[in-house]
Design brief:
Helix content: 10-25%
Bound molecules: copper (II) ion
Number of helices: 1
Largest sheet: 5 strands, mixed
CATH superfamily of the domain at 47-136: Cupredoxins -  blue copper proteins
Length: about 140
């Protein structure tokens, strides 16, 4: 009698192990469905930061009527002006930023007209790191 009472749970354990082993070896190798990488949205900001490495973000999109903020976090003054250089006639609202000291924050005028406004540092007109675009739409 004692042998029987010991064998019964041992058999169940053995069967359980076999099932687990079998299931493990035949587990599907299909990759788990990973979520599609989220499309990086266009930066939703009204602020352009100037650092030692240039302007960031290079392109922003804002609705008509927006005033864009320029923050000079670099150690140098800049002179932010509308394209084209040197006339600055495309988006005169950007010329309101103009000379901006290190640490200073300045605003454009109201960008009311849907269009793309390029800008540059008037003192470094060929420095592409200090060039960017404001898309008004
Ligand atoms: Cu210029």
């Amino acid at each position: 009698m004692r042998v029987h009472t010991l064998w019964f749970p041992t058999l169940i354990l053995a069967a359980t192990l076999a099932a687990a082993t079998c299931g493990g070896s035949s587990s599907p190798t299909t990759p788990s469905p990973s979520p599609a990488p989220a499309p990086s949205p266009a930066p939703s900001t009204n602020t352009i930061t100037i650092s030692a490495s240039g302007v960031s973000p290079k392109t922003i999109t804002v609705p008509p009527g927006t005033r864009v903020t320029f923050v000079n976090n670099s150690n140098s003054p800049h002179d932010m002006s509308s394209d084209p250089h040197p006339e600055h006639t495309d988006c005169p609202e950007i010329n309101q930023v103009g000379f901006i000291s290190a640490g200073q924050t300045k605003l454009t005028g109201n960008l009311n007209t849907p269009r793309t406004c390029g800008y540059h540092d008037h003192n470094q007109p060929s420095n592409t790191s200090l060039q960017g675009s404001i898309v008004i739409q």
